[in-house]
Amino acid sequence: MELEQALRTAVGQLRDAGVPSPRADAELLAAHLLSVSRGRVLAMALAGAPTPEGYEELVARRAQRIPLQHLTGIAYFRHLELAVGPGVFIPRPETEVLAQLAIDRARAVLAEQGSVRVVDLGTGSGAIAASVASEVPGSEVFAVELSDEAFPWAQRNTAPHGVTLLAEDLRTALATQGGTFDIVVSNPPYIPPGAIPRDPEVRDHDPELALYGGGDDGLDLPRAVIATGARLLVSGGYLALEHAEVQAPSMLELFAQSGRWRDVIGHRDLNDADRVTAAYLAETAVPAGSTWKNGPRDRTL
């Protein structure tokens, strides 16, 4: 079969299977087998190129809702090409906003004091830690991951960028380094136990350890990140934390209840959804009910 016909057949097969982006996935699977860009695949199809060996099998597996990234072994995040597979959470484009906040703050601290220490709690694939280390030369970046399955993926993705990777629980991580970090960033598990994801790619393939945050509200691990952040940060240090859109009000309350944070600000992702809450560790206790100011697009406490 010529490639053009194979692509048309694949698009129909993936569409019938409910794959959200059937055309893109069909082309990307061909690009993976041919080791060319997606645009080159289209040019080859127009030129009457043959279908690469194994293409129909790969499309059939994608139709079973096996994640595209598991089939290609690659996930793209910001400027990085990350190795991923079973056992590790696949980084999402929405999380790039969280990484950008950490990168922007790291650059500012580095310019101000000549050094900056950053830690990514629950790093998963290592996407955020590797992004900070690669985009902020001179930064000292740590990453923490508890999962035995995810750790090798994080190691593979962070090692080229000089990240210090630790096999630790984010609740107790870096026990001897309290008060030494300028930035704590985290995309922890935060899904409540009853909110089972609908997409088979997430429900059946992302590890449960990376999805469910614990407690009735799914916020046990985000609470732990806030507590660990308060322990690890220097006075005035910056914490940025990802969460579900519906959890935004709860996150503001969690920061407020601790009495340790100032300038608590919510940030929206590329889909205009409340995705990240960030704050600075206060030098003194913050009175309850304080009002914080920020730009019109962000929610504030």
Automatic annotation (TrEMBL):
It comes from the Bacteria. Signal peptide: none annotated. InterPro entries: DNA_methylase_N6_adenine_CS, HemK-like, N5-glutamine_MTase, PrmC_N, RF_methyltr_PrmC, SAM-dependent_MTases_sf, Small_mtfrase_dom. Substrate binds at residues 187-190. It catalyses: L-glutaminyl-[peptide chain release factor] + S-adenosyl-L-methionine = N(5)-methyl-L-glutaminyl-[peptide chain release factor] + S-adenosyl-L-homocysteine + H(+). S-adenosyl-L-methionine binds at residues 122-126, 145, 187. GO terms for biological process: methylation. Residues 5-73 form the Release factor glutamine methyltransferase N-terminal domain. Its EC number is 2.1.1.297. It is an enzyme of class 2 (transferase). It holds the Pfam family MTS. Residues 100-190 form the Methyltransferase small domain. The keyword Transferase applies. Keywords: Methyltransferase, S-adenosyl-L-methionine, Transferase. GO terms for molecular function: nucleic acid binding; peptide chain release factor N(5)-glutamine methyltransferase activity. NCBIfam families: hemK_fam, RF_mod_PrmC. Methylates the class 1 translation termination release factors RF1/PrfA and RF2/PrfB on the glutamine residue of the universally conserved GGQ motif. Belongs to the protein N5-glutamine methyltransferase family. PrmC subfamily. This is Release factor glutamine methyltransferase. It comes from Arthrobacter rhombi.
